[in-house]
Amino acid sequence: MPIPTYETLIVEREEGIGWLKFNRPEKRNALNPRLLEEFLQALSWLEFDTETSVLVLTGVGDAWSAGMDLKEFFRDLDDKPAERQRVDQIYHLGWQRLNIFPKPTIAMVNGFCFGGAFTRLIMCDLAVASDDATFGLSEINWGIFPGGMVTKAVADILPPRDALYYTLTGDTFDGRKAAEMRLVNYSVPHAQLRDETVRLARKLLEKNPAALRAAKETYKFVRTMDYTQAQDYLQAKMIALQATDPAHGRAQGIKKFVEDKAYRPGFESYTTVADSDKTV
Q1: What is the C-alpha separation between 138 and 76, in angstroms, rounded?
Q2: I need a surface site. Which of 1, 84, 94, 150 has the fewest CB within 10 A?
Q3: How many angstroms separate the Cα of 240 from the Cα of each of 172, 206, 210?
Q4: 246 pLDDT more than 50
Q5: Which region holds residue 148: left if phi is over 0, alpha if psi is between -120 and 50, else beta?
Q6: Per-residue pLDDT tens for 231-241?
Q7: Dihedrals φ, ψ of 178, to 5°?
Q8: Between β-strands 126-130 and 105-109, what pairing exists: parallel, antiparallel or unpaired?
Q9: Is the Cβ–Cβ distance between 111 and 61 less than 8 Å?
Q10: 180, 205, 230 — which closes off a domain?
């Protein structure tokens, strides 16, 4: 399929990896109504693009995203309640669609990540940041709290003391601190960020696509279930996976381990580019 073009986004493909790039560098990729609408359209296209198996979100220029465009999203819509309601709905549909996107998603945080951008960051399955990326929940500094589901997303992923500290102070922090708090999986020097993200994406490309989809779906759903509900759901999901996986991944995996003895779990480890640089 030909790649669609957008005013505020860039879509690219590279050997199974789809790249979705926020493209308002002059505004540090702030999320305005046009970007929110195009983001939803792009996700819908990428979901069914047969040449995209892993999706990476990043930003053009020196920012991942500076959050909501205060002028276009708030001030320009203050006296347009119907339009504001429409844009709010598109905003929420975007992060919800990203949260349930059927393919693995990676946030490659290359620079500024503030406010409303946290929701999209946290909705990605995995995240890698530049050591010198700048994160912040600055809303308290201008008289409000993080809205648009940002507070909920932050509460779900950050330790309470860290979440409250940065919510109440508005202080910024870098990629290393984001990794320490587990907002991202890890951070690397900026020069290594793209290579490390591609390496992680390629590791995912080696996995069974149906199993990857089932694994992320089951994780996200069982988090809110009790153990009895989770047991029933997981058993049903496993049966469904075995019945619908065109690659018959379970049978192939058992054969690889039991008969071919080609897989030895526990004898392989995953290291980042930064980790490998330390090897002597």
Answers
A1: 21
A2: 1
A3: 45, 22, 10
A4: yes
A5: left
A6: 999 999 999 99
A7: -60, -40
A8: parallel
A9: yes
A10: 205
State how far the Cα of 222 lies from the Cα of 103, in Å rounded to an integer: 18
Predicted confidence (pLDDT) at residue 10 exceeds the cutoff of 60: yes
Residue 180 confidence (pLDDT) above 70: yes
Backbone angles phi and psi of 163, in degrees to 5: -60, -45
Residue 2 lies inside a defined structural domain of this protein: no
Residue written as token pair 């490309």? 205
CATH of the domain at 139: 3.90.226.10
Q: What is the pLDDT of residue 277?
A: 54
With contact defined as beta carbons under 8 Å apart, do 14 and 53 qualify? no
Beta pairing partners, 105:
55
**Are 63 and 157 members of one domain?**
yes
Domain assignment of residue 190, given as a range: 9-205
Residues 112 and 234 in one domain: no
Instruction: Tell me, rounded to whole angstroms, the distance of Cα 260 from its chain centroid.
Output: 36
Q: How many angstroms separate the Cα of 232 from the Cα of each of 225, 228, 229?
A: 10, 7, 5
Is a pLDDT exceeding 80 seen at residue 41? yes
Give residue 254's pLDDT. Answer: 66
**pLDDT for the residue 270:** 47
Q: How far apart are CA 136 and CA 169, in angstroms?
A: 10
Number of domains the chain is built from: 2
Whether 187 contacts 128, CB under 8 Å? yes
First to last CA, the chain: 46
- What kind and span of H or E run contains 42? helix 33-47
pLDDT > 90 in the chain, percent: 77
| 229: phi then psi, degrees, rounded to nearest 5 | -60, -45
Instruction: Evaluate whether 56 touches 19 at the Cβ level (below 8 Å).
Output: yes
Same domain, 99 and 118: yes
